[in-house]
Write a structure and sequence with these properties.
Helix content is 41%, strand content 20%. By secondary structure, it is α+β, with helices and mostly antiparallel strands. The strands form two sheets. A seven-stranded mixed beta sheet has the order 1-4-5-9-8-7-6, with helices on both faces. Strands 2-3 form a two-stranded antiparallel sheet. α2 runs antiparallel to α4 and α5 crosses α10.
Length: 333
């Protein structure tokens, strides 16, 4: 194939192959097999180095002429395929005024947007982000968190048990406090976000919802530091430096003292979170001496934050997967 006559044969072969092609894709494949980096003509060019100078000029010229013939034939056939395709469309009475089809681009779910916003805020002030299992043991979900056997949350009416009260779908993200303190020594600054499950369902409650838990353990932990942290977080989250919060006495088995956190919104106080100083029994359960170390914890419903941020009045909208609803919050990942 290195002789001059071999070039003419190769050109004829390439043109015949292109002519017999049945599709645009097949044309591209054939063209590549002759003119591509590993094509026949490329191989021929490599043989030029062994020729005499006068032969190189003639040989190179014939190759270039051959390549141009193949490209011209290829272009002609491509245009013919395009014309045939257009004729087929016209024969089907295609409506050129119809809106084209576009590939839709996915966006972050509003709950995912809020989760990302929360993690960004706490990461910026030095908190770790931890994750844990949604199927929990009774020990991590209740016992280690100082919840007595007769606590209402242990009732079958309130909790999804998977067996004889040994494993359950976690009712809160608080078990991560225990898991994290088992594996990390103070000082501790961590938040955990995820799905939790309770037997409840209406416009503002769901059997599955999202919660965020925060934990701080250090010898300087105090209620004033806790309130300052929540004030900073909520002000940043709602982009309102004038936002006001208040603590209202409450009860949680795993904190003492405990408080509900209210936020002033549209001249009305609205409950937004629960918090308190980590109960000494909880610290003892993870081998931290409460006389030497203190801690505080707080929990916030992510869905509730999303409803307030986006002004949504029905929690169930988050889980119905209605694109008309979700597309209103279009933010790409």
């Amino acid at each position: 194939m290195s002789s001059f006559s071999g070039i003419d044969n190769l050109i004829s072969e390439a043109i015949d192959s292109l002519t017999s092609a049945k599709s645009h894709h097949e044309l591209d494949t054939i063209k590549s097999s002759y003119l591509g980096k590993k094509g026949s003509f490329t191989s021929l060019l490599k043989s030029i180095k062994d020729m005499k100078v006068e032969d190189k000029i003639i040989f190179g010229k014939k190759i270039n002429i051959g390549k141009n013939k193949i490209i011209a034939h290829y272009d002609s056939l491509v245009n013919q395929f395009k014309a045939n395709k257009l004729d087929n469309i016209n024969s089907k009475n295609f409506d050129f005024t119809m809106e084209g089809r576009f590939n839709s681009v996915g966006t972050l779910h509003p709950i995912s947007q809020v989760r990302k916003h929360i993690t960004d805020i706490f990461s910026n002030i030095g908190f770790d982000i931890a994750d844990g299992p949604e199927i929990e043991t009774d020990y991590f979900n209740f016992t280690a968190l100082n919840q007595p056997d007769d606590h209402p949350a242990r009732s079958m009416h309130d909790t999804f048990y998977l067996d004889e009260k040994k494993h359950l779908l976690r009712t809160h993200t608080s078990p991560m406090q225990i898991r994290y303190m088992h594996n990390h020594k103070p000082p501790i600054k961590v938040i955990s976000l995820g799905k939790v499950y309770r037997v409840d369902s209406d416009a503002t409650h769901s059997p599955m919802f999202h919660q965020m838990e925060g934990l701080y353990v250090n010898n300087d932990a105090s209620l004033s530091k806790l309130k300052s942290l929540l004030q900073e977080f909520l002000s940043c989250f709602f982009d309102d430096n004038a936002l006001k919060i208040r603590f209202r006495p409450s009860y949680f088995p795993f904190t003492e003292p405990s408080a509900e956190v209210d936020m002033l919104l549209n001249d009305k106080w609205l409950e937004i979170a629960g918090c308190g100083m980590v109960h000494p029994n909880v610290l003892k359960n993870v081998n931290i001496k409460p006389k030497k170390m203190k801690g505080f914890a707080f929990g916030i419903g992510i869905d509730r934050l999303a409803m307030l941020k986006f002004k949504i009045n029905d929690l169930r909208l988050f889980f119905e997967n209605d694109l008309r609803f979700l597309n209103q919050f279009g933010v790409s990942n």
